[in-house]
Design brief:
The chain is mainly beta and about 325 residues long. The chain has 3 domains: about 25-155, no CATH class; about 175-220, no CATH class; about 220-314, no CATH class. About 10% of the residues lie in helices and about 30% in strands. It contains 3 helices and 18 strands. Strands 8-7-6-9-10 form a 5-stranded antiparallel sheet, with no helix packed on it. The chain has a 5-stranded antiparallel sheet with strand order 16-15-14-17-18, with no helix packed on it. A 3-stranded antiparallel sheet has the order 4-3-5, covered by helices on one side. Strand 7 and strand 8 form a beta hairpin. The radius of gyration is 34 Å and the shape is elongated.
């Protein structure tokens, strides 16, 4: 038993150079053999409970177990856990992880093992999704030799997936849309006046959605309006300046229908119904036949419009 001394500490090292060999017996031996083959088993007690890891005696009564082995899991449920923000040299993982008691499906007891919940910086707090009751599965080592280390660790079951989706299509506008975009390319917002209800439809569609009649009379509208309703979005959008951002229906002054657009230049939690806004145009040299000429609408220094005046457009 070598030891070394220092000014303020004594370091004792106990070592068995040839290793410590012991007989595991038929119960634990069966458990370890099954681990080597990539399976989890428990043993049934006289009372019908399934113990994992197996024990030669019922911990409740002290009686011998029945010798009936039951395959369990491999999936299981976390019954409790403890977070390790700074792994030590001898820990099974070199990044933050959790020690967890995992009860395999079909078992009545739990086994202690490492739980890998992803890559985190040293010192990180436990992730919010780490909780008692979460479903996990073992990550088996490629080469196994009949020890608890044959399970490298447990991992959460897959409950979410991100499927990248992209759709490309070409849209050819009709005469009304082409004329509308032509106006946008010149810094104008054009609408059509309905000959029946006399409401101005913008963007122009070539017909009135209320009366179903063709529309041809052009009306140039100002680029100011009123927010009638809106939504705060927390998913990134290429056109939006930041997250969260606001998409809103804006009733342009003189229009009879609202137009969907972005609202910026104000914190998202300050956008409100009735707020007066004005179009923020891109630089003239960037204009093209596209609604992208208007980046978004920004607040105007004007009093809000009373709700009663816009309630029919919300």
């Amino acid at each position: 038993m070598p030891f070394s001394t220092g000014p303020s500490e004594v370091n004792h090292v106990l070592e068995f150079p040839g290793g410590y060999t012991r007989s595991v017996g038929p119960v634990i031996g069966r458990f370890l053999s099954e681990l080597r083959d990539g399976r989890l088993v428990g043993v049934r007690t006289a009372a019908g409970r399934v113990l994992v890891p197996p024990s030669e005696h019922d911990p409740d009564t002290g009686e011998d177990v029945t010798g009936e082995f039951v395959e369990v899991g491999p999936a299981g449920t976390v019954t409790t856990w403890s977070w390790v923000p700074r792994p030590a040299k001898g820990h099974p993982l070199d990044r933050p992880f959790a020690w967890a008691l995992v009860r395999p499906d079909g078992a009545d007891t739990a086994l202690l093992h490492a739980l890998d919940v992803g890559v985190f910086e040293e010192g990180a707090k436990p992730p919010r999704f780490l909780k008692t009751g979460m479903r996990v599965r073992p990550r088996w080592r490629a080469e196994r030799n009949g020890g608890i280390g044959d399970i490298e660790c447990f991992q959460p079951e897959v409950t979410m997936m991100n499927a990248p989706t992209r759709l490309e299509y070409s849209l050819k506008g009709g005469k009304a849309l082409q004329r509308f975009l032509e106006g946008i390319s010149q810094g104008k917002i054009l609408g059509h006046r309905c000959p029946v209800c006399e409401q101005v439809i913008v963007p122009m569609k070539g017909l009135c959605p209320r009366d179903g009649v063709p529309t041809t009379e052009e009306v140039e509208l100002p680029d100011t309006g009123t927010v009638t309703t809106f939504a705060v979005n927390n998913i990134p959008e290429p056109r939006a300046p930041e997250v969260p951002f606001v998409s809103a229906y804006v009733l342009l002054d003189g229009a009879g229908l609202t137009m969907l657009t972005l609202v910026a230049g104000i914190p998202a939690d300050q956008v409100r119904m009735g707020m007066r806004v004005k179009a923020a145009w891109r630089p003239r040299e960037e204009w093209e036949p596209s609604m992208g000429n208007i980046k978004w609408f920004e607040p105007l220094d004007e009093p809000d419009v009373p709700f009663d005046e816009i309630k029919d457009y919300t």
